[in-house]
Amino acid sequence: MDSTLILTCLAIVTASSLLAIAGLVLVRRFVKAESLKASHEVGGYLLSIVGTIYAVVLGLVVVDATAKYQQAMTITEQEANCLADIYLLSNQYPENKKEVIHDLCKAYARQLVDQEWKLMKCSRQCPMTQGTALELMQAVCDFEPATEKEIAIYPITVQEACNLWDNRRARINLATHGMPMVEWVTLLLGGALTIAFTYFFAINSLRTQLLMTVIVTTITSLNLYLVYVFAHPFSGLLRVTPDAIELDRSIFETKFR
Asked: What is the tens place of the pLDDT at every residue in 152-200?
């Protein structure tokens, strides 16, 4: 996964830099440097405005994308914690009720890892896994506590079941609603126009200007790549893994047979 991320990043930066270089060379071939230098003063002010606006917008999108990825990780861990808590708390229930809840917890964890996690790569959820989650919620809520211990544990178990369902809905929402296409078009077009704006400036050394253009393009490309990586936490190159759910499965199978 790490090598794929690095290679993809290098490919994007290289391709965008080559395009930027080609654009600059093309402009310098057909437009004289003297003509470009004549508009430096006005162009400098305009570039400051355009560059600042785009930098602010891109920075906010990067922050939002990374926050979305972190939220996806947190939600997944919380969902796994709730599932484990339900399983462990139900150990204090009568044997028949305990077995029902245990079986549903195991089924939910298995279906989540083996089926739904793969579907989330395509921005979909698994109806079977959703049905199991509903059955688990129903099984927890239908229990009627009789002993003092059961009366004390019951509301906690119900709360954990509600939290499980809330985290599940939040996870599905993140998986099925990615970054809007209009936002991508705005970022890509804005980046291209910002880089193209630098073509209206000319210095005596073309090599130096090419280097500066590559630096600007690289910084812009890296930030756009960050958005691409983090904007889709369950289907992108850097996906959230079901490790927390796998840990639950390990607990279910080895600790409480």
From this structure: 999 999 999 999 999 999 999 999 888 888 999 999 999 999 999 888 8
The residue among 176, 173, 168, 157 whose CA lies nearest residue 242 is 168
SS (H, E, C) the chain: CHHHHHHHHHHHHHHHHHHHHHHHHHHHHHCCHHHHHCCHHHHHHHHHHHHHHHHHHHHHHHHHHHHHHHHHHHHHHHHHHHHHHHHHHHHHCCHHHHHHHHHHHHHHHHHHHHHHHHHHCCCCCCHHHHHHHHHHHHHHHHCCCCCHHHHHHHHHHHHHHHHHHHHHHHHHHHHHCCCCHHHHHHHHHHHHHHHHHHHHCCCCCHHHHHHHHHHHHHHHHHHHHHHHHHCCCCCCCCCCCCHHHHHHHHHHHHCCC
Task: Annotate 84-111 with b (16+ C-beta within 10 A) or e (fewer).
Answer: bbbbbbbeebeeebbebbbebbbbbbeb
Distance between CA atoms of residues 33 and 240, nearest Å: 50
In single-letter form, the type of residue at position 35 comes to S
C-alpha span between 61 and 42 (Å, rounded): 29
Query: Can you give the pTM of this predicted structure?
Result: 0.84
